[in-house]
Specification:
The chain is mainly alpha-helical and 249 residues long. The chain has two domains: 2-97, Orthogonal Bundle (Arc Repressor Mutant, subunit A), CATH 1.10.10; 106-196, no CATH class. It has helices at 39-56, 63-70, 74-86, 94-97, 106-115, 120-127, 131-149, 154-161, 165-177, 184-208, 226-235; strands at residues 2-7, 21-25, 59-60.
Length: 249
Amino acid sequence: MIFQAVSKEVPPGVPVDEMQLVSVKLTLYAREDCSCKTQHDMVDRRILRLTGEAFGQGALLTRADIAILLSESTKTVARYVKELENHGHVVPTRGRLKDIGPGVSHKKRILELYLKGDEYTEIERKTKHSGEAIMRYVKDFARILVLTEEEYSAPELRIVTGLSDRVIREYQELIEQYSGHEYRERLEHLRAIFKKRRRSATLWGQRSQAPQGGGLHERPRDDRSEGGELLERCAHRPHPARVPVHRWG
């Protein structure tokens, strides 16, 4: 059947009547459905098939879409999706991949796989995300890891990284959960990623402040926003291993 679903390029927060729709071809009934031993198994299989087919054609089904297709309530669909995810399945719904609503975000799921030792290609296969997106999440997580260890406060983390409070909390929960000895190698690799990027940024900053035409080019203090000042202070903040951390008022 042909179904109109929301394009996977549509970001969260777009009004329903402004969402770009994509026509996707979905297999509502398949021969293999007859081999299911229970109604529960058949619904599971159909949810995975329908969401996977839509994703492969550039769209994301919502729980309401699935409910319409399967003649179930959205509450029942939500329960099925949660059970599938608890068993390790990735169900590419709009809510999950766009982090809309409660539940474990796709970012957290990707980072859990990375911390457990999966390689990028394996994570791509399991989560249906591009290698570029996965690498971006890993780099963001590396920043939160190192800055949290350097005792940055929540407001500082939000300003410096540009991440939401929810994402920062999720990443810090992962840091605590995967702090054991068996994950030490991965965590050390993440610290090295961030420190390498920090050194590169420092060198770039030094070059940009090099004397040109007889002096440094510096904006007047009055033109700096509060966020800009905090970013500058954070960029030059000493590592606690060398210099004690001083809290800012």
